[in-house]
């Protein structure tokens, strides 16, 4: 019997939204697709696909240096995309928006450029146990080069982050705190405002990994007062191959370039090179023009529905999912049950997560299984891997029920 859903206070037309996503009509193995792998990547609405196609059909050209019609059209569209991102996340200036290849490159840029210029032996880089590998390895690399040290905030036994322990970890030796806004495994929403305030009290800067947050929470970087914010287009219904680094102007302005090449320079001689103004100092080479335009259209689409309405809908789905999984014998949900955004990870007694994912795939249900690029967190729980259901604006309660039913069937067959 389907369980009753929690009350909802927003008018939300999920069927209208689903009609905007062509891929949801795909039928793997002849079965209706249930896509619950949104934390890995989200699907693209028709308007994003059409916007990128229109760019290639009507204005494709390289940007910034051309003086012909197509180049001017492409440049204008590319820079409008930057302004769309600026307004979506509440940045003060368009120069604070740097286009990168994704969250991973954004974090690497900060670690290499800001970290290489500012970190010294004995300085501390504060992380948590639940960070994605892309928010661990870049800091290990810069620590090896500079002599700085990683300090890892411990978790409570249920995987939650203690505010008290977090504040204790940020000391006079802290130079940067780099932390996920939302965990990609636990889905927990970190109370980052408290953390940012403490970091600033000791003179440290804060980078937030927003890869799992921007599509599921309202994000305003000025209200948060974070120093850097990173996210990926493909997790907010935009194309792959592009992401965003937000940085406060005064920090970005002092940072050395991350890569050298075309468009990041003012003047080059063999004796000396002078660099371009922000944000171009960090955008060497031909940028992902069509992808920037697609990202902007995705953010406009997201805004037309409303992030608050989406978050409320996803909260219902996650609560429904947790209730259903709690009723399956031998299934254990990872992490705290409150303040969770869009992600439910679990393990099942006696059955490997990869076997669960394979079984559900044959039922037309796409989920993720593995360590989710968070091996330190798997080690914390004493497990090699977990299964993960992750929802998006287009998922439905019926899909959650189908996935839970398929999981029951899977466990019955494989145990």
| Topology-level CATH name of the largest domain | Aspartate Aminotransferase, domain 2
Distance between the termini: 23 Å
Specify the number of helices: 14
Overall average pLDDT: 95
Q: Mind telling me the CATH class of the largest domain?
A: Alpha Beta
Name given to the CATH architecture of the largest domain: 3-Layer(aba) Sandwich
The largest pleated sheet is described as:
7 strands, mixed
- Name the overall outline: globular
What's the CATH H-level superfamily name of the largest domain? Type I PLP-dependent aspartate aminotransferase-like (Major domain)
Percentage beta strand: 15-25%
Number of strands: 15
Q: What does this 3D model show about the protein?
A:
- This protein has 14 helices and 15 strands.
- The protein is of the alpha/beta class.
- It has two domains: 14-44 and 306-414, Aspartate Aminotransferase, domain 1 (Alpha-Beta Complex); 49-304, Type I PLP-dependent aspartate aminotransferase-like (Major domain) (Aspartate Aminotransferase, domain 2, 3-Layer(aba) Sandwich).
- The strands form four sheets. Strands 2-8-7-6-5-3-4 form a seven-stranded mixed beta sheet, with helices on both faces.
- The model is unreliable at 1-9 (pLDDT under 50).
- The two termini are 23 Å apart.
- It has helices at residues 14-18, 46-58, 69-89, 103-118, 137-146, 163-169, 192-201, 221-224, 249-254, 289-305, 307-326, 353-362, 375-381, 397-414, and strands spanning 34-35, 97-100, 124-128, 149-153, 174-180, 205-209, 228-232, 243-247, 265-268, 273-275, 331-333, 343-348, 365-366, 368-370, 386-390.
């Amino acid at each position: 019997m389907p369980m009753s859903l929690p009350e909802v206070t927003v008018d939300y037309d999920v069927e209208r939204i689903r009609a905007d996503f062509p891929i949801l009509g795909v039928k793997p193995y002849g079965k209706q697709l249930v896509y619950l792998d949104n934390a890995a990547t989200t699907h693209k609405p028709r308007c994003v696909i059409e916007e990128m196609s229109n760019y290639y059909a009507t204005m494709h050209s390289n940007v910034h240096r051309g003086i012909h019609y197509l180049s001017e059209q492409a440049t204008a569209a590319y820079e409008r995309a930057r302004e769309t991102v600026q307004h979506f996340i509440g940045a003060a200036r368009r120069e604070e928006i740097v286009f990168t290849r994704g969250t991973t490159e954004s974090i690497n840029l900060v670690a290499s450029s800001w970290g290489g210029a500012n970190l010294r032996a004995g300085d501390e880089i504060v992380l948590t146990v639940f960070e994605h590998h892309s928010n661990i390895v870049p800091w290990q690399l810069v620590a090896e080069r500079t002599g700085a040290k990683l300090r890892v905030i411990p978790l409570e036994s249920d995987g939650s982050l203690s505010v008290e322990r977090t504040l204790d970890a940020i000391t006079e030796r802290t130079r940067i705190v780099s932390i996920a806004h939302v965990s990609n495994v636990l889905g927990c929403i970190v109370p980052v405002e408290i953390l940012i305030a403490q970091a600033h009290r000791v003179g440290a800067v804060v980078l937030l990994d927003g890869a799992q947050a921007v599509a599921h929470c309202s994000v305003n970087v000025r209200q948060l007062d974070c120093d850097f914010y990173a996210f990926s287009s493909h997790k907010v219904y935009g194309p792959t191959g592009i992401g965003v680094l937000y940085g406060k102007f005064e920090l970005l302005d002092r940072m050395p370039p991350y890569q050298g090449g075309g468009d990041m320079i003012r003047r080059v001689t063999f004796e000396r090179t002078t660099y371009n103004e922000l944000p171009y100092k960090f955008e060497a080479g031909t940028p992902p023009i069509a992808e920037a335009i697609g990202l902007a259209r995705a953010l406009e689409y997201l805004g037309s529905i409303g992030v608050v309405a989406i978050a409320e809908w996803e909260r219902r789905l996650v609560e429904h999912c947790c209730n259903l999984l709690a009723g399956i014998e031998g299934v254990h949900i990872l992490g705290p049950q409150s303040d969770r955004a869009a992600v439910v990870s679990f393990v099942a007694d006696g059955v490997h997560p990869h076997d669960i994912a394979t079984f559900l795939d044959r039922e037309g249900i796409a989920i993720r299984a593995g360590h989710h690029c968070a091996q330190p967190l798997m080690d914390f729980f004493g497990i090699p891997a977990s299964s993960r259901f992750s929802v998006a604006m287009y998922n439905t309660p019926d899909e959650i029920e189908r996935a839970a039913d398929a999981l029951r069937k899977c466990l019955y067959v494989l145990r």
